[in-house]
Design a protein that fits this description.
The chain has 122 residues and is α+β, with helices and mostly antiparallel strands. The chain has a domain at 13-29 and 66-89. The protein is 26% helix and 41% strand. It contains 2 helices and 6 strands. It has helices at 4-14, 68-88, and strands at 21-23, 34-46, 53-62, 92-96, 100-104, 107-120. Strands 1, 2, 3, 4, 5 and 6 form a 6-stranded mixed β-sheet that branches. Strand 2 and strand 3 (53-62) form a beta hairpin.
């Protein structure tokens, strides 16, 4: 793997089978349900060997807006599917944050941040 943009695209591509609106950046307006690939924290760390790096990304997933029970169930299903898709594509899923309300296009939607990482070089 090389190039931060290529890595970000690879994370988004891993989520393609889910049929989400997937972004490799923070869009001005997001169509829900969606996944947005952003820089993780820390973004880049030393790897296990000379020249290798550990790259970390956050995947913000958000469900379609709706009544609380259906929105919560939809986010749970989205998390499960995203984790499975990312792991099957070789990404290490480090953690899934507690769900939170986020504003998208003047409406509140339920979302969470999935942290993923992989070793590679620049």
């Amino acid at each position: 793997m090389s190039g931060l943009g290529d890595l970000r695209t690879a994370v988004a591509d891993a989520l393609a089978p889910l049929g989400l609106n997937t972004y490799t950046h923070l869009p001005g307006r997001a169509a829900l349900p969606c996944a947005m690939v952003i820089a993780g924290s820390p973004y880049i760390e030393q790897g296990q060997t000379f020249g290798e790096r550990l790259f970390r990304f956050g995947v913000l997933v958000a469900s379609q807006t709706g009544e609380n029970n259906s929105e919560t169930s939809a986010l749970d299903e989205l998390i499960e599917a995203a984790v499975a898709a990312l792991e099957s594509d070789g990404w290490l899923v480090e953690q899934v944050a507690q769900p939170f309300l986020q504003e998208f296009n003047n409406a509140q939607a339920l979302g969470t941040l999935i942290t993923v990482s992989a070793f590679g070089t620049l």
